[in-house]
Design goal:
four-stranded parallel beta sheet; binds norvaline; 13 helices
């Protein structure tokens, strides 16, 4: 019997597996109903402990398109870990659904869910990672910068700069997913908001095997210099709302505006996982400008998530 696989962090997929999933996503984008691994319909539980728009919409649409039933479980009612333990919830759900998609806080919560569920568990954002967004972003970069590599690391030769809150889930995801894809990944972030050292070390280790590169710098300009893709994210992630005021000043030099973008390659694309705060981490001119591919990126959540679910449910 094959072991159940999960997608809890970007590096849960090997280099070849990541490329396979991205290829499948492109195939599903071209032929939307090509895979029906949830025909029955089998149910997938989708649970949110934090706010959502894109993730709820894309998983709901995607699970339906895969022939399944998207079962929204209200995290506010379930209060997982308060009313009952994570393992008890995992055991109950695992008896009834084909997979579990969960947006929550600590990474340890989703790891515990995976340990006890007996069905694939997919991370729909935790404090540490947002790997579904990572896949969607790699797909978007591939589409706009010459496609996926036919073999080996999916985006070899391409580069990505993330500027802003280097300690958040998106920064960590870009480090792991980008290194896995063989990219030159740079994070430009202020002191006190740098990526977790353990995750940087892991990204460096992955990059050593894929031909990628990892750079952490305090200079937004240095990070962006000549890159293929420039990305940013909110300065105030979900769960940090009470720090909104103190998070303003340190990030001002990292705002993605036309001046900063001018340091990137002339054909560079701009990504943002959304929601975006125009005039804060990104200017309206850049977000709504000709280099922005954020609407493709948002759509690609659907295709990427259908691909990872299909891959997890059908692999042997
Ligand atoms: N870093 C953001 C991503 C939102 C999709 C957050 O965690 O709120």
């Amino acid at each position: 019997m094959s072991t159940v696989r999960h997608f809890l962090a970007d590096d849960d997929l090997s280099t070849d597996e990541q490329r396979e999933v991205l290829e499948l996503a492109l195939r599903l984008k071209a032929d939307r109903f090509a895979e029906r691994p949830l025909a029955g319909p089998r149910s997938v539980a989708i649970i949110f402990d934090k706010p959502t728009l894109r993730t709820q919409v894309s998983f709901t649409a995607g699970i339906s398109e895969l022939g399944g039933y998207p079962m929204l479980v209200d995290g506010g009612l379930a209060r997982i870990g308060v009313r009952e333990s994570v393992p008890d919830v995992a055991r109950v759900l695992g008896r009834q659904v084909a997979a579990i998609v969960w947006r929550t806080y600590e990474q340890s919560r989703i790891e515990e869910m995976a340990e006890h569920a007996g069905v694939p568990v997919v991370n729909a954002l935790t404090d540490d990672y947002h790997p579904c967004q990572g896949l969607a972003d790699l797909l978007t970069i591939a589409e706009h910068t010459g496609g996926l590599a036919p073999s080996g690391p999916a985006l070899a030769g391409r580069s990505l700069a993330y500027v802003g809150d280097g300690a958040n889930n998106m920064a960590h995801t870009y480090l792991l997913a980008g290194a896995r894809a063989g990219m030159d990944v740079r994070v430009g972030a202020p002191d006190g908001y740098r990526p977790a050292p353990g995750i940087v070390a892991r990204a460096e280790e992955i990059a050593a095997g894929t031909g990628g590169r990892v750079t952490i710098t305090g200079s937004a300009q240095e990070a962006v210099q000549g890159v293929t893709a420039v990305v940013t994210d909110t300065w105030v992630s979900m769960g940090h709302e009470e720090q909104a005021a103190e998070r303003e000043t340190p990030f001002l030099p990292y705002r993605l505006d036309a001046d900063l973008l001018a340091h990137a390659a002339p054909e560079a694309v701009v990504l943002h996982c959304l929601p975006a705060y125009r005039g804060k981490e990104i200017t309206a001119e850049v977000l709504d400008g000709p280099r922005s591919v954020v609407w493709d990126e948002a759509e690609n959540r659907l295709h990427a998530q259908k691909a990872i679910l299909t891959w997890l449910l059908t692999r042997r």
